[in-house]
Amino acid sequence: MICKAVVLCVAVCVDIALFYAPGLAVARSVSGHLLRLWVSASLRCLALTGVARLGLGDVHPPLIRVIAAQSLLPAVFESGAAALRMEEAPCGFPADARRWLAYTGASLAAALFWEVTVPGSDAKAAGKDKTRKARDLFVRVLRMYAPHGRLLLGGLAFLCLAVVFEMFIPFYTGRVIDILGGQYQSSEFGSAVLCMGLCSLGSSLSAGCRGGLLLCAISAFTCRVKVLLFGALTKQEVGFFEKTKTGELTFRLSEDTNKMARTVCLNVNVLLRTLIKTLGGIYFMTALSWRLTFLVLLETPITGLVQNVYDKHNQRLNLAVQNSKALANDAAKEAVSAIRVVRSFKAEKREAHRYDDRLMDIHTLKTRQGSVRSVYLLTRRLIGLGMQVFILYCGRLFIQSGQMTTGNLVSFILYHADLGDNIRAIIYHFGDMLTSVGAAGKVFEYLDREPQISTDGALQPGRLMGHVGFRHVTFAYPAQPDTPVLQDFSLELKSGQMTALVGPSGQGKSTCVSLLVRLYEPQDGQILLDNEPVASYEHGFLHRKIALVNQDPVLFTGSVRDNIAYGLAADCSLDEIQEAARKANAHDFILKLENGYDTEVGKGVVQLSRSEKQRIAIARALVRRPQILILDEISSSLDIDNENKIEQTLASCPHLTLLVIAHRVKTIEKADQIVVLGEGKVQERGTHQELMARRGGYYQLREKLFTEGTSPRRPTDAVA
Fold it and tell me: Pairing relation of β-strands 468-476 and 484-493?
């Protein structure tokens, strides 16, 4: 630390000595040849670099940039002053000391601006990767706009026209002021006003056409991306939805797709418009007064520095707010979807407090975001007002010297007022575009995700026997990979026979069903259908031949007819639907509904009883004419009469392979094979009489859990 302080003192002394060196002092060289300015700057740069190397050894790039700015800035400024034909600066020790301090402060400010806006060597790799990723995402979003390219190109064309027309309005405003302030001529005044009116009209019409075309492009693109994302999500395996919160998925589907659409249409629209206005403004300002333009552009580094610092903080806070909103949405959705559980346990206040905590996190982040923005706006306002005062002062001097007119100064001020806003808009919207591209990255992550369970099978045999075999299957759920549910599990389901699975809860009954319908993939072993792996069958064919009826069936919003033909709407006639409903003993009560098979059911429409829903679900399974039918605890929702009629229907299908999970003794007794599961394996297998005669696990389970014709006693959930 002491060594660095000594080196700093020596460097300051050397720099001041060279700055005041006779014959080389910059302040005394303005009236001399410009070569002496740059010779002095070069000597100072070499001397300061040498002192730094001798004292510190290794000189870091930021220090080199500070030395370069400190040495070259005086020469640059004095050369610019000479080019602008400004009055020679006064000489003397006080003036030279003030000049040296001003140059030093400006050098440090320039070096700070560079370090903030340009990544250093330590951050180059990370910054390069981030920039490359953002660029690739932007190009990909742009390619996705290809089907809507005509709308996009039309909007951008009208955008350019609107900006070009708009750029001439301040010019003709100054022209009108000069005409009114000088010798008034009606022809020149009318011509100037007419041109200004035509430019205003052209700008307004072009802006309206631009807005309409770009909004149409955004709407079409958003709908298309949402459909693609929804399709990609529905193709994912069930384990994906168990690990990913529903609130996050709905947020990506609703919010991120909108931000993704704005990446090109809105941000590029604003960037292109402000870029054209900035270049056009600089062109007109240079034509009006290149000297004032040179002075105005000195504001740009300061404005860019302030904007860059603000954008970094604002982007970080925006990301935090976005994540907090996703958590709040998830908390609300979770509580609403499980409102019965919340009400049963009187947890309304707990859920309200939990949701309030999420909202308070958002409020805190937005408060911080507002504070940062307030400081930014105050700083920007002070810089803008200071530059306006400076322009007015210099403009008065140029008007007095005859270098520009009053109208030119008014036009220049109008262009300058837009210039600062345009530069800030370019920097801000570029950062906002990176944020939008970040949202697109999450959407593309889901679009590109390949399901862990493949659906690329192609096998579609003309005849399927329905023989199912579990061969040494080992499986653990993705959420608990270290807790296997099935271990070296083997089971045969023969064609035309009924197999019943029984056992306590968590022993693998529902897991067998989930694996058979390919909701999950076993970690080891195989599941065969007619001696072929189930994965080799075509996805649609497999799910037409294997039908599942759950204990709590789900009916979607739509008609009864649509619910029975769910997934087969194009290949299912009304006669087939009615036939399936008769087999499920649902035809009679459906006809009694208000509109029969066209009655709207689902949430908020016609509310059916649990038994009626169950029978519609059975009809939905039977209309597929499956070869394998899985009934998961459906008897818990059916009375004895309905259950007997459905059993008679199933008995009339001699080649149907039936897999049942049930708790009623009558259902179990009729099974050709009863399989008792425990600890992820088959503990017993046989008919009801065989297993009762053994007095093993099945006998004990029956005595504990089964009751004749009624729901099981506690803990009966273990069998369900």
Answer: antiparallel
Per-residue CA distances from 522 to 219, 511, 515, 547 (Å): 42, 10, 7, 20
**What's the CA gap between 104 and 101, in Å, rounded?**
5
Enter the pTM of the model.
0.61
pLDDT for 131 equals: 65
**Secondary structure class of 661 (helix, strand, coil):** strand
- Beta strands at 524-529 and 498-502: parallel, antiparallel or unpaired: unpaired
Q: Is the dihedral of CA 644, 649, 655, 660 positive or negative?
A: negative
Mention every residue, 6+ apart, whose C-beta is less than 8 A from residue 434: 134, 315
Task: Find how far residue 360's CA is from the centre of its chain.
Answer: 22
Instruction: Dump strand ranges (E) for 440-495.
Output: 468-476, 484-493
Residue 462 φ/ψ, nearest 5 degrees: -70, -30
pLDDT of residue 584: 87
- β-strands 628-632, 546-549: how paired? parallel
Peptide bond between residue 715 and the one before it cis (omega within 30 degrees of 0): yes
User: How crowded is residue 349: how many other Cβ atoms within 10 Å of its Cβ?
Assistant: 9
Max distance between CA atoms of the chain, in angstroms, equals 123
Tokens of 651: 């008995």
Give the pLDDT confidence of 529-573 residue by residue, as tens digits: 988 999 899 888 888 889 888 888 888 888 888 888 888 766 788
The pLDDT, as a whole number, for residue 382 is: 86
Tokens 């829903």 found at? 613
582: nearest Cα among 602, 606, 601, 564: 564
Q: What's the CA gap between 47 and 42, in Å, rounded? A: 9
> How crowded is residue 203: how many other Cβ atoms within 10 Å of its Cβ?
19
Question: Cα-flanking dihedrals φ and ψ of residue 623, to 5°?
Answer: -65, -20
- Alpha-carbon distances of 594 from 586, 598, 599, 600, 603, rounded to whole Å: 15, 9, 6, 9, 17
End-to-end alpha-carbon separation of the chain, Å?
A: 75
CA–CA dist 338, 237 (Å, integer): 23
Structure tokens at 188: 């020149």
Ordered by where they begin, the domains of the chain are 2-117 (no CATH), 130-448 (1.20.1560.10), 468-718 (3.40.50.300)
Interacting residues of 181 by C-beta distance below 8 A, sequence separation 6+: 405, 406, 407
Question: Computed from CA positions of residues 445, 446, 450, 452, in that sequence, does the dihedral angle turn out positive or negative?
Answer: positive
CA 643/CA 664 separation, integer angstroms? 11
Q: Are 681 and 489 in contact (CB under 8 A)?
A: yes
* pLDDT < 70 regions, the chain: 1-38, 40, 51, 53-63, 65-66, 68-131, 182-185, 264, 298, 300, 420, 424, 427-428, 431-436, 569-570, 602-606, 635-637, 663-665, 704-720
d(CA 505, CA 718): 4
